[in-house]
Design goal:
mainly alpha; 5 helices
Length: about 140
């Protein structure tokens, strides 16, 4: 009788697949060959270059760095992750908003994108208004 080999395939684990040696930066994502960049991709790239130039100018003058709320990242691969627990009612409201954006405004966005946009708006409001911001008011209600 012939020896039986396992039919199970051995695959590398997540640690091996996503391991980045320290000091190695991920390569910037480039559009697939033959595809033109969209206007928003060009704007994001221009904005990033402008922010980099502003940082260099500020560093050379010795000025204090101005803290700004990050722009929402939109559709891209994200390296960081958090887990947020929401109530059933909050999840339902989020999903209804997503569907409403699609039906009434022609905007397609997943729940993660909606949450990132909401966080960006809230952080910008906090940065601009400080103690009178919506975030401070809502957190003070509890």
């Amino acid at each position: 009788m012939a020896s039986q080999r396992s039919r199970r395939v051995t695959l590398p684990g997540a640690d091996e697949l996503f391991f980045r040696p320290s000091g190695v930066e991920p390569e910037p994502e480039s559009p697939p060959s033959g595809r033109q960049r969209t206007a928003s991709e060009r704007e994001d790239r221009d904005d990033a270059a402008e922010r980099g130039a502003e940082r260099k100018r500020g560093a050379s003058r010795g000025t204090a760095k101005v803290r700004r709320a990050p722009k929402p990242s939109g559709r891209q691969r994200h390296d960081e992750k958090i887990t947020v627990y929401v109530s059933g009612a909050e999840l339902l409201a989020l999903e209804q908003t997503r569907l409403s954006l699609r039906a009434e405004h022609g905007l397609s966005a997943d729940r993660g994108r909606l949450v990132r946009e909401a966080v960006a708006v809230l952080l910008a409001d906090f940065e601009e208004h400080g103690s009178s911001s919506m975030l401070v008011r809502r957190l003070s209600e509890d």
